[in-house]
Amino acid sequence: MAEFIQEKEFDYLQAGEGHPVIFLHGLMGTLSNFQSQIDHFSAIGYQVTVPQLPLYTMPLATTSVKSLTKFLKSFVDFKGYEKVVLVGNSLGGHIALMFQKMYPERVTGLVLAGSSGLYESAMGNTYPRRGDRNYIAERVRDVFHVKEVATDELIDNVFDTVSDRNKAIRTLAISKSAIRHNMAEDLPGFNVPVCVIWGRQDAVTPPEVADKFNELLPQSELHWLDECGHAAMMERPTEFNQIVAEWLDRTLPKA
Questions:
Q1: Which residues, listed in sequence order, are joined to residue 222 by a DSSP beta bridge?
Q2: Is residue 184 part of a domain?
Q3: Closest-CA residue to 117 (of 89, 93, 99, 101)
Q4: Nearest-angstrom CA–CA distance, 168 and 142
Q5: Is the dihedral of CA 35, 31, 92, 229 positive or negative?
Q6: How many CA atoms lie within 13 A of 201 on its CB side?
Q7: Considering its fold, how many domains does the chain have in total?
Q8: What's the rounded Cα separation, in Å, for the pair 215 and 10?
Q9: Running DSSP on this structure, what letter comes out for residue 50?
Q10: CATH at residue 216
Q11: DSSP 8-state assignment for residue 10
Q12: The domain containing residue 101 runs over which residues?
């Protein structure tokens, strides 16, 4: 069972003991997005942490992918982790890539699922219609191929975000920052194992994005999940966990 911990400026879930694996949620994501992964990986010998990214609490002038990456560095330092595996979905994948660029000595491996960093289509320069829950519900469902994942609770969370002017402005700032921080020129220089897991029906970061990641990253392997959209860890948790567990077994230095 994961424990919710609040220490200093950090709110996070933690479970298990072993090599640290940090899960990073996306722009509209929450800690619960990784519930299946917390349960699975904490039970097979890893210390799992899921930090709450300060998407809506940073000063607006510094709200960016780079600032979120520096926040992650401060979390890794706070936890005393020497080296970590980073597993990121959507914006979380982009932060993982930026962390590898800025602090490569602290990373043993990356897992990318529907990651941004090469292609951004989610919002562009506009924001969804505020105050229209039905419209927001349809947009949330569009993210998933397995529509049941878009629960009323998840839709309500997104609706609350887009209805809050402060959160809406910061969401746009992060989206624009993601476009500016394109990683295409950085990826060929990454000396780290990368597991790329992608839904074939991902409409947010289409399948060709996964092919491009696999082409540019020197030590990557690409795994496809059928009948799956943008959030593989939520839509196909059993298959996702198996792929990552087998990859970790091959990748991490043995004790």
A1: 196
A2: yes
A3: 93
A4: 19
A5: positive
A6: 14
A7: 1
A8: 35
A9: E
A10: 3.40.50.1820
A11: E
A12: 3-121+178-251
